[in-house]
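Batch manifest, entry 17 of 40.
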Amino acid sequence: MLKVDVIEKGTVVDHIKGGKGARVLKIMGIGEDYPYRVALLMQVPSKRKGKKDIVKIAEKIITEDEANIIALISPGATINIIEGGKVTKKYTVDLPEKLEGNGTCPNPNCITKSESEVRQAFSKEDSGYRCHYCERLFRAEELV
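Output type: structure tokens
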């Protein structure tokens, strides 16, 4: 049995789509230079998802913007905020209706690529997210 130590303060992201845990760490800016403890468990058996990843990050409290980006990669992931060694807040991330200032338009001809002061903006539709500027439709995961 694998045992991962308890953290006093930080975040645990559970129920990440199997194989996407490393990507969650990357978008949160957690790399080899992060000075605190990080645990990444991949392809863990899950009754709910079949296989899941789990990320445990000491000394990092996820912001709402970061939670929205995690939702693009793995809707339904669970965020657990840890303080004093206990879960103080727990919630599930869902795809946001609007994204402003988060995500990147994959269209190389979009004005957001050449105008740095233009803030990224997307609206959720049934089959993905539409860029406010170039009006193209993209899958959620393409925005990160």
